[in-house]
Amino acid sequence: MKTLLRSFIINLAALSITVSVIPGFTNQGGAKTLVIALFVLAIINLLIRPIVSLLLLPINLLTLGMFRWLVNVIMLAILTSIVKDIRVNEFSFQGFTYHGFVIPIVEFSRFWTLVLSSLSLSITNSFLFWVARE
């Protein structure tokens, strides 16, 4: 029970951090929507992820696992289609300059916003589980 509660809290924190970090990944409904999205994501990962992973297995084998991230993007896309208050929209990164290092202005489409959100969710989740391990 303790492990399940810790997992729930870490996943909730990772989802809320992703919503606040990625401008195109928005939550219109507040904390209640995040909790609902968390439960829906858990069900999607339990029921649909194995099927999608099996369907993408030939691509993963051919690319030596380089397209494994696509499964996470698909799971996040399914989540946004089920939970209407979690939205993924296009956004524009305004660029960054620091001591001659320049990152130009970039426009992200809905697909690339999903990819960034999936990457952010995965990295945040892994980091928080690493911090919280016993």
UniProtKB/TrEMBL annotation:
Q: Where are the transmembrane segments?
A: 7-25, 31-48, 55-83, 111-132
Q: Acetylation: present as a keyword of the record?
A: no
The record's annotation in Pfam families points to: Phage_holin_4_2
**Domain of life, per lineage:** Bacteria
Keyword Transmembrane: yes or no?
Answer: yes
**Keywords, ordered alphabetically:** Membrane, Transmembrane, Transmembrane helix
What is the name of this protein?
A: Phage holin family protein
Write down the species.
Candidatus Chisholmbacteria bacterium RIFCSPLOWO2_01_FULL_49_14
